[in-house]
Amino acid sequence: QTDIPAVKSVVTEFPVGAAITGAEITTEHGELLARHFNSVTPGNALKWDATEPTENTFTYTQADPLIAFAKAHDMKVRGHTLVWHNQTPAWVFQDASGAAMTATAENKALLLARLENHIRNVAAHYGDTIGTWDVVNEVIDESQSDGLRRSNWYNITGLDYLRTAFKVAREVVPSAKLCINDYNTNVAAKRDALYNLVVKLKGEGVPIDCVGHQMHVNVSWPSISDTEAMLKKFEGVGVEQQVTEMDVSIYTSSGESFPTPPADRLLSQAYMYRDMFALFRKYKADLTSVTLWGLADDNTWLDTYPVARKDAPLLFDTRLQAKSAYWGVVDPSKIG
Ligand code: G3I
């Protein structure tokens, strides 16, 4: 389909991106990506298990081709992610004897040294080509009284892993925007916990430039007003905001499963994309990019999460044809 407008030619308020988790750039998906988007996020290729599978052995074979593709097509790159509790090899949290780390001063020093070494290598390898980094991912747990996720990172270092990660990233790539990224930030308790953490750390001088809202949503959740409250909350904190992983599931509960996407769900999805993008464009002064977590419905993490079932959360269908969702973003008068 070369007769339809490129998403990036219509949505010009901020870069629009897609995450790539497979071999898309080597297929016709690559053409679709470059035609419609001006930003790309490697969905898995920059995570710790991909870049430093064994200690101090760095491999960039997964990410380098993607970054080269982005460069060749004049696309921005969001680096995802330097620090997470998932997709991190077991050795990271093992002590010198190979046992699981406990919270001792020695282990804390070792873990922070590994963190620093990781960031120094990965961020330096890409330098200026990665304009934004999700320095840390999903550190909030609003069910804890202090709002902080009890990950190995937290359990062994407290908040110091956050302080170290941002400071080292700033030192290595001073030009990059440094983000703290999380999901469900439209939920008041989560949003507030993230806000409190950002305000505290920024107050200490930790160089956080940006809050990333993942926006894994569905056809009937969340409301636009809750999403607007999320964007409003972070205005005036001195951070940019980015939508980092948006997709709109056709499912509204984990019990549902459709062999093919029902027409009414695809319509609701188009309206959700329409309304969300209208909101994002209204907040263009705060939002500095919007990225979808995938390119087309033939490759989406939602096919396996929360249960195995076919989902259809993106702008293009499994045959790479524009869906109503695409028109929701590009020209709502053509939805349907
Ligand atoms: O590469 C292997 C392949 O060799 C193997 O045959 C196959 C069998 O399971 O697994 C493949 O690895 C999978 C990988 O995706 C690549 O497709 C992993 O099992 C699978 O766990 C991994 O899932 C990724 C997930 O993060 C892991 O936590 C998804 O692709 C990725 O989209 C997802 O992304 C996260 C963001 O980083 C953070 N926010 C939520 C978002 C969605 O879960």
From TrEMBL:
<keyword id="KW-0326">Glycosidase</keyword>
<keyword id="KW-0677">Repeat</keyword>
<keyword id="KW-0378">Hydrolase</keyword>
<keyword id="KW-0119">Carbohydrate metabolism</keyword>
<comment type="similarity">
    <text>Belongs to the glycosyl hydrolase 10 (cellulase F) family.</text>
</comment>
<keyword id="KW-0858">Xylan degradation</keyword>
<keyword id="KW-0624">Polysaccharide degradation</keyword>
<dbReference type="GO" id="GO:0030247">
    <property type="term" value="F:polysaccharide binding"/>
</dbReference>
<dbReference type="GO" id="GO:0031176">
    <property type="term" value="F:endo-1,4-beta-xylanase activity"/>
</dbReference>
<keyword id="KW-0732">Signal</keyword>
<feature type="domain" description="GH10">
    <location>
        <begin position="1"/>
        <end position="332"/>
    </location>
</feature>
<protein>
    <recommendedName>
        <fullName>Beta-xylanase</fullName>
        <ecNumber>3.2.1.8</ecNumber>
    </recommendedName>
</protein>
<dbReference type="GO" id="GO:0045493">
    <property type="term" value="P:xylan catabolic process"/>
</dbReference>
